[in-house]
Amino acid sequence: MPKVKKLKNGLNVITIPTIGTKAITIMALFPVGSRFENAKLAGASHFVEHMMFKGTLKRPTYLEISKELDSVGAEYNAFTGKDSTGYYVKINEEKQELAYDFISDIVFNSTFDEKEMEKEKGVIVEELRMYDDNPIMAIDSLYEQTLFGMDHPLGRDIGGTAKTVKNLTRNELFEYYKKYYTPNNMVLVLAGAIDKKNKKKFLNYFENIKVKRGKNLQNFKEFKFAKSKKNLKDRVVVKTKKIDQAHVIMGFPGINYTDKKHYALSIMLNVLGGGMSSRLFVEVREKRGLAYMVRAGAGAYQDTGEVHVQAGLDPARLKEALVVIKSELERIANEPITKKELKDAKNNLIGHMTLALEDSSAQASWYAKKFWFGKGLKTPEQIIRELKKVKLEDVQKLAKQLFDFDKMKVAVIGNLNKQQILKMLK
What we know:
Layout: E1 3-6, E2 12-17, E3 23-30, H1 44-51, H2 62-70, E4 75-80, E5 85-92, H3 96-109, H4 114-133, H5 135-148, H6 162-167, H7 170-180, E6 187-192, H8 199-207, E7 236-240, E8 246-253, H9 262-273, H10 279-286, E9 291-300, E10 305-313, H11 318-334, H12 339-356, H13 360-373, H14 380-389, H15 392-402, E11 409-414, H16 418-425
Parallel strand pairs: 2-6, 7-11
Antiparallel strand pairs: 1-2, 3-5, 3-6, 4-5, 8-10, 8-11, 9-10
């Protein structure tokens, strides 16, 4: 069972000791992401993440930051989401003090050198272009725009746009950083081979941070799906691009992060598109050879969520695939899944979770997000018990609730136009 402690400066620490490993992951997670940004600051959270590796008071240059960790074979990285930003180091247990020192230094002492910031603008713009040129990545962004709308932060790209990135000033970015990167707005997770003897000394790297830059006001704009029905043409967005495949996502309003129906949702998605024996994989790929990639998934936030089906295939066969996908969504909503499907889905999910959490970095990420967005720190064992409780009728009832085709939104990238897609969907 993980242990939670709050340091004197308000910083939360979760400890997850693991027997039989010589690695430890130190992860810092802040509950702030792109949904905290207004339109002018779009991309600020992601830009801050980049600047964490460009120089600190103790390590003035990016080379001093990277060489120190590279020299001991450590893994280190960061990630930005809609509602959180995280930083981690996975390192040999004998070198773990360096990880504590490093994480503390970059998240609280970064200098945001103006020259480095101007150079990094070019890097980020190229990153955005790379994603936009890759339709498998670009379809996610187009889908979020379609689902949430560009007037809401959830509908905007996490990285912002080339224009917003280039227009961000050093003062704007630094003020954004100071507002949210505070000890009382951070959880630190220690997972793996923790040095219990020196842990208190190592935590001084964080407890000695006395900066009080304000509190996390959770001032994101709450999202609610419109209750009024829109015409199909207003729920479909097509980006015409001369590529060989058509990439499509069909999505629906989902459930928020703490909804108890998440266990039924996991099972439903597993049955639909969770593996090579799932319904969509069998019907779309194996029986008809329509697509190489077809899958079902979901996203969840504090206030809302979504469920979707994604596929990439020959544009000439897209209509047939859409008919099959729609048929499978209707079937799972109107007919109970079988007892064997329920049993197999539970075993599949439990097996995947068990394997994933063998890794200390996966454990760190799991508990960090549970801390900020869940209702209590549920252990994998508790999750398994809840999954086992799900009944056939729970899955069907949820599917019927979610797969409302009057609320369906569709995003497509390919050598097709909107009128062609609308004809396929009717």
